[in-house]
Design brief:
Strand order of the largest sheet: 1-7-8-9-10-11-14-15-2-3-4-5-6
CATH topology of the largest domain: outer membrane lipoprotein receptor (LolB), chain A
Radius of gyration: 22 Å
Helix content: 10-25%
Number of strands: 20
CATH class of the largest domain: Mainly Beta
Largest sheet: 13 strands, antiparallel
Structural class: mainly beta
Number of helices: 5
Number of domains: 2
């Protein structure tokens, strides 16, 4: 569906809503969305406990270091899209079975290395490209550890002839959220095997896990392939080439170089997380009480909070998607000492003829936006450059 046609449908549907109803439409339909009917809220203690145990069992498959044996993991991947680094890449991780580890990754001109030794982390100082951080998040830590803090909704769906249980997690839900809220992450798991089938940190991005030829490593079952779709298109294909015992690893592999030691400890990466909403109002018209959301997927610098790279997960070719990208790229987030991977909800309150009234059917290019977020700071000017620039 063309973006402007989608906007027209969105606006016409809002005019039909009573003022007491929801202020925004649910996320646009996606062929990879599993939950298409309203899930039920898990409010009883027994239901929540069962769901949390379910997530824990699914997560344990990806926690390879819990096996406490030396291993060698090799991964290849292929990415497409509009981020700063796209193309063919590789990643390798080594673990000594105790407290030392090393991983490296290559993508275009980027060569990343991290060494963990004696509770310290050393490595290359340059930012880790977004696609490499995605590979590590989606392959090694897709299921959250702190699920108990979330509200949980659940739905059983049919997929490829079998029943899959989907759990939707959020910190809060709006009124009438629909089958999938803009604020929910989604984990779909096969209850017969406890294997993760679909990961979706936010509407618009879906990782599909393929266990054909799965790798069984000391009771940890990794998918052989993972396909990541954004806006319905394949954006990242991950393949586990090998995962093997590695009892004879050279201890020198886990020693940082003198240059690394002199530079001090390096930043590490966070798992994917949510942020927002970041409210945006028109600055040349009254704001409607109705709004449209765009999710922007970004990586954030560890030291200064600037946005290193970003992509929109909805309307990426439309004025609203471009506006969302521009707003996020020019926002400085709170630095944490970790390179963060965030999915930012940008909430556009559409223009109206009077404050709080229904939106007017204008093109987004006619609107100037102002960010209503007092935490917003002017980001540093430093940015990653495209390969070759």
């Amino acid at each position: 569906m063309r973006p402007r046609r989608y906007l027209a449908i969105f606006l016409s549907s809002l005019f039909c809503l009573p003022a007491t109803f929801a202020q925004t439409n649910p996320p646009p339909a996606d062929p990879h969305e599993m939950v298409t009917r309203d899930p039920h809220i898990l409010s009883k203690t027994a239901e929540r406990t069962s769901a949390l145990d379910f997530l824990t069992r699914a997560r344990k498959n990806f926690e390879l270091r819990d096996a406490q044996v030396p291993y060698s993991l090799k991964v290849s991947f292929e990415s497409t899209g509009a981020t700063l680094n796209e193309g063919s890449g590789t990643m390798e991780e080594l673990y000594d079975g105790n407290s030392h580890w090393r991983w490296t990754a290559d993508l275009q001109q980027a060569h990343i290395i991290r060494i963990g030794a004696d509770s310290r982390v050393y490595g290359s100082p340059e930012p880790v490209p977004l696609r490499i951080q995605m590979v590590r998040s989606i392959l090694l830590r897709p299921v959250v550890h702190d699920a108990a803090q979330f509200e949980i909704r659940a739905a059983d769906v049919q997929s490829s002839g079998k029943t899959v249980s989907c759990l939707l997690l959020s910190h809060s839900l709006p009124n009438n959220p629909g089958p999938r809220s803009w604020f929910e992450r989604e984990d779909c798991i096969d209850p017969a095997t406890d294997l993760l089938q679909v990961w979706s940190e936010a509407p618009g991005i879906y990782a599909i896990y393929d266990y054909s030829g799965a790798v069984d490593f000391h009771g940890h079952l990794l998918p052989r392939q993972i396909s990541v779709f954004e806006e319905g298109r394949l954006a990242l294909a991950i393949r586990v080439e090998s995962l093997k015992d590695a009892p004879g690893l050279d201890p020198n592999l886990f020693n940082p170089t003198p240059e690394m030691t002199e530079a001090g400890e390096a930043f590490t990466l966070t798992s994917a997380g949510r942020w927002g909403p970041l409210r945006v109002d028109p600055d040349n018209a009254p704001a409607s009480r109705f709004y449209q959301l765009v999710v922007v997927h970004a990586i954030i610098d560890a030291q200064d909070g600037s946005v290193l790279d970003a992509e929109a997960l909805q309307d990426s070719g439309d004025d609203l998607g471009r506006a969302a990208l521009d707003i996020v790229r020019n926002t400085a987030f709170d630095p944490t000492g970790f390179q963060q991977e965030l999915f930012v909800n940008v909430q556009f309150h559409l223009p109206a003829t009077r404050f709080g009234g229904p939106p007017v059917p204008v093109f987004h290019s006619h609107v100037r936006w102002i960010v209503l977020d007092h935490r917003r700071r002017t980001p540093p000017t430093r940015r990653l450059t495209h390969p070759g620039n």
